[in-house]
Amino acid sequence: MCLCCRSMMPKALDGQIVMEKTPRYFVTEETPARIYAMSRDIKLIVVVRDPITRAISDYTQIISKTPDVPSFEMLTFKNGSAGQIDALWSPLWIGLYAKHLERWLAYFPPSQIHFVHGERLVSDPAGELGRVQDFLGLQRIVTDKHFYFNKTKGFPCLKKPEGSSKPHCLGKTKGRPHPKIDPAVIQKLREFYQPHNLRFYQMAGQDFGWQ
């Protein structure tokens, strides 16, 4: 984000909040400084989920576009062997949340950063969005009555988005079945991420319960 980007955002009336959503911001090295230069008082919202689930989801997206890439198991390890985890492989590197958060805390206090629990966003969307509304200083208007669970998607959907009589669910790229991953690889990833997750819990002031 840059200073000139403000002119590209929609005009806000009194009492309105303008939001911009780009997932890559959290992990891009230069972004915290650039956003700080734009606004020191900005409120930041980050949605995080179990980094292993997130990595498999990323891989599912990759193979949907490039089906002939090596297996998840092969890409997880350096040189394709079941040895050292390749922490520089993008789907795994993004899940090193503490590493990325450290850069943000160099510019913004924890009080300006709110973490949305990705798993609870699915199981209790109203509760998670209630906490987001609190963080933004908004009245809790979005409640349980606004959602229903779509069993096919495996995600909650909005019953009636504003200006429409039809329910709204996430797009076709969400809720796709993930490939089956070797349990031994999952276990190695759990061991790899454990210290990083514990450090992230401490920095974020929240235990996300990723086993």
Automatic annotation (TrEMBL):
Residues that hold 3'-phosphoadenylyl sulfate according to the record: R49, S57, K174, G175, R176, P177, H178
Keywords: Disulfide bond, Glycoprotein, Transferase
Residue stretches making up the Sulfotransferase domain: 34-195
EC code: 2.8.2.-
Gene3D superfamilies associated with the record: P-loop containing nucleotide triphosphate hydrolases
Cystine crosslinks: C157-C169
Transferase found in the keyword field: yes
Name of the top EC class for this enzyme: transferase
Pfam families cross-referenced by the UniProt entry: Sulfotransfer_1
GO molecular function: transferase activity
Family: Belongs to the sulfotransferase 1 family.
Record's protein name: Sulfotransferase
Species assigned in the record: Coilia grayii
The organism's taxonomic lineage, starting at the top: Eukaryota, Metazoa, Chordata, Craniata, Vertebrata
